[in-house]
Amino acid sequence: TMSGAPADEFAVKRERITRALEVTLSSGSTTAEGVAEGVAAVRDALVGDEATAEGAAELKAQTAERASTLELVLRTFLESRLGESKRPGASLASVGVTALLDLALALSAAGVADHNACFCLLEDLFDTLVISEADQLWKLVEARAAALSPLLSDTPEKSTRAKLTLIRTCNELLRRLSKSKNTNFCGRILMLLSYVLPLSDRSGVNIKGISATSQLDVDETEDGVQDMEQDSGANGAGGAEAANGGE
């Protein structure tokens, strides 16, 4: 049937890509050459025997369809590896999750996958991890910040989805973290965002000019003002004594 043909075509393509991912990750190569070979293998599996579309509109649609297919297969593959990581003695690195993230990053950088591919994998990962595991995974993200940054500073057409996914992931993490117990982790998340996103990015600008609405109690009575002046004088005297003592 006509409705079954696209599904069968997708199943064949998914099987080819999955096989390429398994072969690449099973090699265990983390060198630049090994990653490049993995990118080439996944690209070949994605394209297959399909002819390149003619015309700008057709080519754009074909590229978008391929990127969408690859992103879906990557997320499905990650899900299967996460299931394996729950076995006794297994870890994210031992089942190839770390290598998969590096491969997804390389695929995005090479233009084979959408810029959002590696970020959606990170979002899926953090959604399944407890805080202690998320803390360890965040170290991996920090180590690859320089490679992630170009994917977020590309043209809006390419980088908007990636930015939104990263911001959504970070906001969800910050919501889960305790501001008193996980202060360091919260700070690391904000520092990474400030590194990979420009200061002028819409997500970090107070566009509406909203002011803080929290109440600040100030004692404006005469006694309160005198106490403030005394405290100020004491601090000034202490600073002068410290300066004289230093001489």
TrEMBL record:
Record region (Disordered): 218-247
Source organism superkingdom: Eukaryota
Bias (Acidic residues): 218-230
One BP term from GO: mRNA export from nucleus
One Gene Ontology cellular component annotation held by this UniProt entry: THO complex part of transcription export complex
Composition bias, Gly residues: 235-247
Protein name per the record: HEAT repeat-containing protein 1
Organism of this sequence: Phaeocystis antarctica
